[in-house]
Amino acid sequence: MITPEIQAELTAIVGEERFRTDPESRISHSYDATPMFQSLPDGVIYPASTGEVQKILRIASNYSIPVVGRGSGSNLSADTVPSKGGLVMVMTRMNRILELDRNNHTLTVQPGVYTQTIHDTVEKEGLFYPPDPSSMAISTIGGNIAECSGGLRGLKYGTTKDYVLGLEAVLANGEVIRTGGKLYKDVAGYDLTKLLVGSEGTLAIITEATLKLIPLPESRRAMVAHYTDLDAAARTVSRILSEGIIPCTLEFMDQKTIQVVEEYANIGLPKEMAAILLIEQDGPPAVVENDIHQIRKICQETGATHMEMAQTEAEGTRVLAARRNALAALARLRPTLILEDTTVPRSEIAPMVREINRIADKYQLNICTFGHAGDGNLHPTLLTDARDPEEIERAELAFSDIFAAAIRLGGTVTGEHGVGLAKAPYLEWKTGRIAIEVMKGIKKAFDPQGILNPGKIFADTLRTERVGD
Amino acid sequence: MITPEIQAELTAIVGEERFRTDPESRISHSYDATPMFQSLPDGVIYPASTGEVQKILRIASNYSIPVVGRGSGSNLSADTVPSKGGLVMVMTRMNRILELDRNNHTLTVQPGVYTQTIHDTVEKEGLFYPPDPSSMAISTIGGNIAECSGGLRGLKYGTTKDYVLGLEAVLANGEVIRTGGKLYKDVAGYDLTKLLVGSEGTLAIITEATLKLIPLPESRRAMVAHYTDLDAAARTVSRILSEGIIPCTLEFMDQKTIQVVEEYANIGLPKEMAAILLIEQDGPPAVVENDIHQIRKICQETGATHMEMAQTEAEGTRVLAARRNALAALARLRPTLILEDTTVPRSEIAPMVREINRIADKYQLNICTFGHAGDGNLHPTLLTDARDPEEIERAELAFSDIFAAAIRLGGTVTGEHGVGLAKAPYLEWKTGRIAIEVMKGIKKAFDPQGILNPGKIFADTLRTERVGD
């Protein structure tokens, strides 16, 4: 509850325009990109500096008000839904690029900078920030750090975690910490930098980040391989990697996804195929040529029925856009799209896809599967309608079965989308109870009152793992 | 204090031969590779399984006995010196390689496996585990994980942290947690894996690790460049990296180090030079040839007075051995060698080396500096005599000045050796007081009684940073 007294204190920090309690502001910050989760905040506040964030958090601490940090809200785990009310703190005014350090290959930014802006800024200088979540055109780097965003290039280049060298962050009590620095090696105490990355706004509010950049690859080349048989596609993935080639992109689409994307984008995808692989390599031209040549040979030998080689980088970009557009394509078909994020060891991709298909049939659901074959990160995606409670109930049972199958195959309940509200009931399936107790202790070390993004990661109620299915 | 009752309980777990309280066992586990730190444990115990580790820790918890996990004790931060007595738990019996998974490019090992054994095992299969701490012939992987060991290849390939995908670890109360897995993406809760890496045995005892492997580079080529001018060497480093080349090794040695290593190894190093750079590149032969050619050109243009190109891989290995042997060479000269580990942004290497030399002159000390130029990780190394209290006092003042200089230049007090006992008084200079409070809270979440490696990371007494120097 925001009393008039608290309202006055908050307004004194940011001004009337930047602290909103009107219904429009509250409603538009009651949800994020995750379907079926919504909860009204008591107010929405827009700090412009670390100092303002500190002051806001001191007030929130004083009055025990929940605070949900948020950028564009493009996450897919309901991580920025203010499920316990309180304040949504929108970080988009802190959107300055503070320094591009060419000598040390670092970029220092405020949290509200768009991921795409980072790409554009550094690539002009011949540098590269690899993480490329599908939402990168609209996502903020603060959100990417909070979620440890992945993307298509994760296999070769890693995820957001691998590119955060240092952070400035404000604790729940308003104190500021600075971790890491322009340092490629730093073992001074526990690694708070890596702990904050992926902590989903539950430990601190990130107010500045120093990112690691690498040299921009000189060239890139893409290709597509078609399969009438799922296992043949899995064999290709396995062979490519076992021959020592790590492509920068190695994406998988199943038949249902191919059909939907082709209907949407009309780019010549073969709708009768069981699977396609979208493969891209980057690096020095000679290496790229050689790798793509070898990959082509491997595709042939492992049972691809057809291959298309992009002749130019632009053509390659167009081909990969098909994968990037998969979500938009799927979203057109039915009112609600639930995008899941199970990850398995990459040797288990074919068994996992078969499990997903079996479970979809069992519950009579329409699930399309695509994802990052090289790192085992699959996105089984349900096309449904949130207004149909009976179908949604079946969907919950199906996803519960899918998570259990991923765990059985040595996988995890979320590879890159985060736990948030959506996965919290299932977290224990992956980590066990003891690890969750430890994590709660860590949360307490940062935020003893529990005001930062409460209700996320740690579930109020757990799902019981059903056995024998 | 280990009473006869506790002794009986511990002996019941591991047998009489594996729990030792004799003076020889206690003395030989009272120190590690760090000079000037020694403290007797009450006993030394050798578990053979996770189950035994659990039982030992339950007893230690019951009786509040400190437990210091240890491999070979090759760390340089006094991290395995049992400064509060108690048990040294030696993990070397748990030394099995559990699985090499060729499909998923992972290796699962027990903590007592030697780092070198890991290299040999996976390289035979065309795979690569890059971290290469100087102690790798004798260090154990458990120790490497506890310390987040670096090495010569850190710039291009990262450190131990970047290669640990999953852990099994026993908490102080004897409970087991399993983190991560054969997963390249996993955001299920806080990243306990990365938090445990580099936690110096203060959070849990690691009993199993799943390591990430990458394809073994096809070829490698080394060269040496000589400089009469420190800044010219720094310019070379900067130019190489700014042209988009990331060598796998980019090592720096100052004049004093060159002189000592040459006297020891007699490999033709130029004793009159101000600095040399040892440079190695690996990868596909065409890339390596091209990079080395470009690097050679850059060295010339930035002021190297002489260059030597290794004609074969074997010759390159011999050249790099000079750097690997630096420590042994230095150790011959005087009874005590104190190897420091300050790290600065790589743009600050030349200023940092100049600071080190100024400080050495000021305190009339013999400090040789070598290290990893590409990642700014320098090892200023003092040749001294622990039996000379007056010189040791000057040394402490000098190192205190060196750490302060590193912090001023945006650096850290330890890049790869860890905090342990040796750096604990200085940790706050890097992290600030608030972050240390948070770290203590994290420690409490794992080990509420504080029995795991007590006295490490968090200092009993702090150093006051002296200003105006």
Automatic annotation (TrEMBL), chains A, B:
InterPro entries: FAD-bd_oxidored_4_C, FAD-bd_PCMH, FAD-bd_PCMH-like_sf, FAD-bd_PCMH_sub2, FAD-linked_Oxase-like_C, FAD-linked_OxidoTrans_Type4, Oxid_FAD_bind_N, Vanillyl_alc_oxidase_C-sub2. Its cofactor is FAD. Pfam families: FAD-oxidase_C (PF02913), FAD_binding_4 (PF01565). The keyword Flavoprotein applies. The keyword Flavoprotein applies. Keywords: FAD, Flavoprotein, Oxidoreductase. This is Glycolate oxidase subunit GlcD.
